Amino acid sequence: MSQKKLVTPFISENISLSNRIVMAPMNRRRAVKGIPHPSMITYYQQRAGAGLLISDNIAISSNGGAYMNTPGIYNEEQKTAWKKVVEAVHAEGGKIFAQLVQAGRIGHPAIQNNEPLISSSAIQVNETIRIPDDTHQPMTMPISIDLEEIPFWVQAFRQAAINALEAGFDGVEIHAAHGFLIDQFINPLSNIRTDEYGGSIGNRTRFLLEIMQEVVAVAGKNKVGIRLSPFREIYDLKSYPEELATHQYILEELQKLDILYIHFSNAITNGRPSIPLNFLRSARQRFKNIIMIAGGFTVKTAEEILQTQFVNLVAFGKLYISNPDLVERIKNDSPLADWDEETFYQGGDKGYIDYPSY
Predict the structure, then answer these.
(1) Which Gene3D superfamilies match (predicted)?
(2) What is the CATH number of domain 5-343?
């Protein structure tokens, strides 16, 4: 059997990876007061065989994490804990990027340090979320960010990137997907602003591009990626007429910034991916650097999408939860272990660091 492209090295002038397999960013919610739990050191070290690891969602501020027990990187204690994680990954020869997030209107004050939710506009999400008393409560009405406060949030992303690099991360990924704050500015269903951050495609993407410019300025373009989720229906966000044009514009602007990679989150719904192949084809034409994709891939479908040449890397989430040695299993055609959904977001070390290697 010919060698799978998945397990061959990826080498470009900007980064060299031992294989084309990425551990997708997953918020496993194992932090305490925003501080990574010591077991997170073991968790990431076990999976350091990936060409690239992307961290849990890491909150850039005390009201930035959508869910309970989300880690942060906005104080020294958090940075120190992340440094131990990064050092463990590097000791195994791995590379790891920090995924930085501000969840915006997703969450609840009981989770967000008793602070109000914020968003592009004061539009509430019609969903519930689990809070510390173990009940599910409706997400609260967010406060629309004042025009003069927008630079504060741009700088919060900038500072989080600085903190991540100081903790030793090899780079940062800006989370602009999944209905979180940046996505709330991009989508006209959550953004009804009438100032220069709302309305036209250029206005709705301004917040995103200002953040990217600031992060590139402090990290360097070769240490910056972004996660996007075009056509993903989540947290009351649905498709809208200008969605294709909006994302094509974003791709062109990101190419001008010459960032390292774009990471598409490709949700599988009823067996169908949210991102069609013809979009990936046009994305490849607009963005010349690394394109990564995640979302329900099997080894077979990951190999097939790599062969299209539209993407360079494939990120695995659930398969990496239950197969810490995923790269070796794929190389050797070993069977893949099943995951336990009950322990995805809670359960301490059970279902976290106790999955055996093959």
Answers:
(1) Aldolase class I (3.20.20.70)
(2) 3.20.20.70
